[in-house]
């Protein structure tokens, strides 16, 4: 009885699945439409050999139920999902659902990719109802075909997940899904549940990553974690194209001033140190040469695949292009802007991005002392400011020179015992390196504690002193101004005093970036604008306070959402000078120091140069920010 299962199934009228995988079907039938494809025409799996095994795992012949892909952009994964949809429509009709982040993306995908693809494959087009009469081949979001139904939904609408059960579920670009869809839970879980009724289900989840422990990072962790290994053309050992900044295997030269790439990019084999040219990857990646996916977490019942842009076929994005992007991001990162680096980590390296906010070491911080003696104002100073941290019976103050080019120099700092002492420090005339005399133009006094005394001090010194306060929650602007009112005999009186409510997280980020950048420049023996320095007698006590906090990340274990906040390294750490640093950073922004021009430069240029030239030099000067 058991020897002829095929025949008995046949007698029951059950048609067995044709033994064709999604990859084989694609090589036989798939045509890439000319309108929306970089390489229109016949699909060839050999062009992107790393996609073959993934397509096989998505095929009915494979027992795998869940396939998760963490990937860079432009590697062919969008078409891979289309191959699966079209193959099932053609050979294995069943309910199919695809979920994209938004309606707009879904509509675009249907119009530009899926519908033209259906029309280009006669056997599929014959099966889709109304494909010939209707311009959009059966509707953008729902396509009925012989034996099945395809539905295209979007992640931010609960309706997309209601009442449709599917054997093949595709969740595309899940990092752009919302954490929760209209109070019904995670759209990834809702999508996955669509296939519960099917024992032969296929769930395909893919995305470029975002943050560590984000949605796709966690899905990949919950899989057998495969990477694509290829034989080294020199020694034959199996290697991957890894991008690890701390242990870089890509070899290239660049100009350390401007971060311009000066050479070709090669890959150094970790086993034999042989250099691999980019053109060699075509052969290395082919199955015939022995390239294959290898699991780092073997035995897990979900498949996971990770692939970066360095695997892109020749003629797509090149190594030189990626490294140029990386160097550009590196330059921006050194200037305190990590957004480009985040983008390249996610979309090129297929790596989650982790902001690096370790606390600065106080030894490193001490490198920022310079030759200028305490109390002396450096050349190039645009304004002298002061910050005051108020305690129960004493104060911590700091006098800072804000320089052209947005640099800061700590002229003087210390502890004061009384308001009178503070007033004296604030009203002192400070002499400059060049003999000029400077007065404090603005002093920020923290009013979080002993508010009334602070207001009184500021009112009596209203030409210089302003009360400030840290904002609570997440403010929508770096600072806000409000009017100070007082209750006198039950009446609310406007005092005329302005209170600045500041986003301390914002200014801490800014100050931290400036300090880190200054240390880096110092270690490399370079100078630059937008740096931090302090006088020659600065002590370890000051350094300890200035490095007393780090940025901490709280991760919501359920959603993977990240929340970053500055916290003290130890609960008892004193951070008064760090707070003063934050206030002077705010004053620098309030006074617009970043945008001030050196008067002498303007004057000189007006005398000697035509207007057009002056403007272009000004642009160069400003581009340093
Ligand atoms: Zn080798």
Helical segment count? 19
Query: CATH superfamily assignment of the largest domain?
Result: P-loop containing nucleotide triphosphate hydrolases
Please tell me the CATH architecture of the largest domain by its name: 3-Layer(aba) Sandwich
Q: Which spans of ≥5 residues are poorly predicted at pLDDT below 50?
A: 1-13, 132-136, 604-625
How much beta, percentage-wise? 15-25%
Q: Give me the CATH fold name of the largest domain.
A: Rossmann fold
Q: Helix- and strand-based class?
A: alpha/beta
Count up the domains: 3
Principal-axis shape equals elongated
* Text of the CATH class of the largest domain: Alpha Beta
Give the % helix.
25-40%
The average pLDDT is 88
What's the main sheet like? 10 strands, mixed
The total strand number stands at 29
Give the terminus-to-terminus CA distance: 81 Å
Small ligands present: zinc ion
């Amino acid at each position: 009885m058991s020897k002829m299962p095929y025949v008995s199934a046949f007698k029951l009228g059950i048609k067995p699945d044709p033994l064709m995988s999604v990859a084989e079907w694609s090589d036989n039938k798939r045509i890439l439409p000319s309108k929306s494809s970089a390489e229109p025409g016949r699909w060839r799996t050999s062009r992107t050999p790393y996609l073959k095994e993934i397509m096989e795992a998505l095929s009915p012949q494979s027992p795998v139920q869940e396939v998760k892909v963490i990937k860079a952009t432009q590697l062919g994964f969008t078409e891979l999902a289309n191959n699966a949809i079209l193959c099932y429509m053609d050979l294995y009709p069943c309910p199919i659902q695809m979920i994209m982040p938004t309606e707009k993306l879904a509509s675009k995908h249907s119009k530009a990719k899926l519908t033209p693809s259906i029309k280009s494959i006669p056997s599929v087009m014959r099966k889709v109802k109304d494909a010939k009469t209707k311009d959009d081949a059966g509707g953008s979001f729902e396509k009925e075909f012989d034996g099945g139904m395809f539905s295209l939904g979007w992640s931010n609408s609960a309706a997309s997940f209601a009442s449709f059960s599917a054997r093949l579920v595709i969740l595309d670009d899940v990092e752009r899904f919302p954490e929760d869809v209209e109070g019904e839970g995670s759209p990834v879980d809702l999508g996955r549940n669509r296939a519960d009724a099917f024992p032969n289900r296929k769930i395909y989840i893919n995305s470029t990553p975002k943050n560590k422990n984000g949605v796709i990072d966690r899905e990949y962790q919950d899989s057998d974690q495969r990477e694509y290994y290829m034989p080294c053309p020199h020694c034959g050992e199996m290697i991957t194209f890894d991008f690890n900044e701390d242990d870089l295997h890509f070899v290239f030269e660049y100009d350390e001033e401007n971060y311009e790439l000066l050479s070709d990019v090669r890959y150094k084999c970790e086993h034999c140190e042989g250099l691999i040219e980019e053109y060699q990857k075509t052969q290395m990646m082919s199955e015939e040469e022995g390239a294959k996916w290898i699991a780092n977490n073997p035995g897990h019942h979900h498949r996971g695949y990770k692939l970066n842009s360095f695997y892109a076929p020749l003629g797509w994005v090149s190594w030189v292009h990626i490294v140029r992007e990386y160097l550009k991001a590196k330059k921006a990162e050194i200037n305190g802007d990590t957004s480009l680096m985040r983008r390249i980590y996610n979309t090129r390296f297929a790596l989650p991005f982790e902001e690096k906010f370790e606390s600065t070491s106080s030894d490193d911080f001490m490198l920022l002392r310079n030759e200028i003696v305490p109390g002396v104002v450096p050349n190039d100073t645009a304004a002298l400011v002061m910050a005051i941290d108020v305690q129960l019976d004493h104060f911590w103050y700091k006098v800072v020179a804000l320089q052209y080019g947005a640099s800061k120099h700590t002229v003087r700092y210390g502890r004061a015992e009384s308001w009178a002492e503070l007033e004296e420090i604030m009203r002192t005339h400070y002499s400059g390196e060049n003999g000029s005399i400077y007065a404090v133009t603005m002093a920020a006094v923290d009013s979080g504690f002993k508010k009334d005394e602070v207001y009184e001090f500021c009112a009596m010194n209203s030409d210089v002193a302003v009360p400030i306060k840290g904002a609570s929650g997440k403010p929508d602007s770096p600072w806000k101004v409000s009017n100070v009112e007082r209750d006198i005999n039950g009446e609310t009186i406007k005092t005329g005093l302005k209170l600045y409510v500041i986003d301390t997280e914002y200014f801490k980020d800014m100050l931290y970036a400036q300090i880190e950048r200054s240390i880096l420049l110092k270690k490399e023996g370079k100078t630059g604008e937008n740096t931090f320095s302090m006088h020659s007698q600065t002590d370890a006590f000051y350094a300890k306070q200035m490095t007393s906090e780090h940025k901490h990340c709280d991760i919501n274990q359920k959603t993977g959402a990240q929340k970053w906040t500055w916290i003290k390294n130890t609960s008892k750490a004193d951070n008064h000078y760090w707070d003063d640093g934050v206030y002077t950073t705010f004053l620098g922004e309030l006074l617009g120091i970043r945008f001030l021009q050196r008067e002498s430069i303007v004057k000189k240029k007006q005398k000697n140069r035509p207007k057009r030239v002056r403007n272009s030099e000004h642009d160069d000067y400003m581009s340093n920010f």
